[in-house]
Specification:
- By secondary structure, the protein is of the alpha+beta class.
- The protein has a single domain, classed as GIY-YIG endonuclease (3-Layer(aba) Sandwich).
- The protein is built from five helices and three strands.
- The chain has a three-stranded antiparallel sheet, sandwiched between helices.
- Strand 1 and strand 2 form a beta hairpin.
- The termini are far apart.
Length: 97
Amino acid sequence: MDTVAWDYIMTNKPKGTVYVGCTVDLVKRVWEHKSKPVKSFTQRYNLDKLVWYEQHGSLDAARKKERQMKRWRKDWKFRLVEEMNSDWQDLFEQIAR
């Protein structure tokens, strides 16, 4: 049986710098971005707002989509976020419940 996995986008402000990632534990991974325990791209640019996420039926599927999204133009990523979250609100509280 495959593990559920997630793709997600973090940012610091609407239409700002974005980070695309994938994980099997979305709440834990977003918390790690927010708490900034190690030096990283998300720490350097203060990317602490979860603005988009998508569930996949396997880690392989999530990784494939992540690789595709990392090659996308920035405006494509912005459009994807705005389809789910037009106000660019931090969705962490929504998923942490």
